[in-house]
Amino acid sequence: MSVWLTLIRPDLRHRDARRDLASAVGMHHRLMMLFPDSTEDAARREMGVLFRLEDAAHHGPRTPQVLLQSQVRPDTDRLPAGYGSTVTRELAPLLDVLRDGLTVHYRIAASAVRKSGPTTRAAGASPIITLTGTAADQWWQRQAEEKAGLKLISAHATPLDAARGERGQDKTRIRHTRTRFEGTAVITDVHALRTCLLTGIGRGKAYGCGLLSIAPATRQAP
Fold this sequence. Notes:
By secondary structure, this protein is of the alpha+beta class. It has 7 helices and 11 strands.
């Protein structure tokens, strides 16, 4: 199976780039345009499309960049002219070196939530409860150790702006609170880890949440 990681550095002078960066829904639609035409939600899952917005410093102010992971190579020529620069590489060399007992750096921007209980829902509260602070930290530890095959050594949490936007077809407003978790961990179940690397973790995967990045600890963190 081929897995591709594409780095997109949008040019903030480009109107479409600024608009996409302001809306998780807009960015989702933009990135899905880089793949063969299909029903978007089904195609996203079938092609393993995940993305994450990050800031990068390049000898000056921090600028936004997009990490796009997929199991089909994106056609970056479909981006509007002048949208920004792109670099695509295969992740197979990284996946091939993963093994139980290996220490890795990790990073993920995830939507930490839990389902509310029946009593809370009966009172009219939202069925999904956003987690912050210690509760979010505990959520990530459970996801890492019970789902992703990682034994955490260190974990640093940073609250991020929510992924938000409006779906054009039904005007539904999308909002996923995000927290960036990063640190080091030891692989305890490499098969579980590979699954999470390919499919993501948590809610909001279509809108910039859930992409887990790792790198062996002897290399630079992702």
